[in-house]
Amino acid sequence: NAGVTQTPKFRILKIGQSMTLQCTQDMNHNYMYWYRQDPGMGLKLIYYSVGAGITDKGEVPNGYNVSRSTTEDFPLRLELAAPSQTSVYFCASSSQGLRSQPQHFGDGTRLSIL
Amino acid sequence: QKEVEQNSGPLSVPEGAIASLNCTYSDRGSQSFFWYRQYSGKSPELIMFIYSNGDKEDGRFTAQLNKASQYVSLLIRDSQPSDSATYLCAVDSGTYKYIFGTGTRLKVLA
Questions:
Q1: Measured between alpha carbons, how far is A84 from A81 in angstroms, rounded to an integer?
Q2: B33 close to A (CB below 8 A)
Q3: B contact residues 3-32, partner A, Cβ 8 Å cutoff
Q4: Could you read off the pLDDT of A52-70 as tens digits, one per residue?
């Protein structure tokens, strides 16, 4: 099992450009998440999904969009990139249970907006 | 606003000692508690999770939960230089979501 796979690993964008960060998982997890992590900070939730076709905003959703057409994939779209979106982005997934389950993280995408 | 608080450190301990990492949380409704280790430039990886009050042991790691006092701790016995990393505490926040602390940086001195 590959677990959670994120692409690309690194990317430099110019201000105003758009891009999609890809995330796929092969563990048949219903729940998927996008976080950003700024230097020396914890993880901030951007968007999450509880299943195909269902998404919801997290703590810091402005400037981002998501979709969830399949159980496996949960892409994150940046529209009109801004320097404030320079960060490391992590995708995570977790299974469903009676209690909240541990999350499995991808390796991250390091994004710089110049 | 629901919060998870951790001392940012660095917490320095000599090799072989016990490292004690602490975390407090604000939401009394939280039921699930997680510790992740994050090496510099890497993604978080799960170390321990705990649901019930008391201690849970896994090898050199022990998670301790006290819901009445709203804190959760992680003890690392026989600390090794390879344990040097940032340790993130995470707590469930309602349904399907988690709140992360900013992490405690641990340095194990050889």
A1: 8
A2: no
A3: 4, 8, 31-32
A4: 999 999 999 999 999 999 9
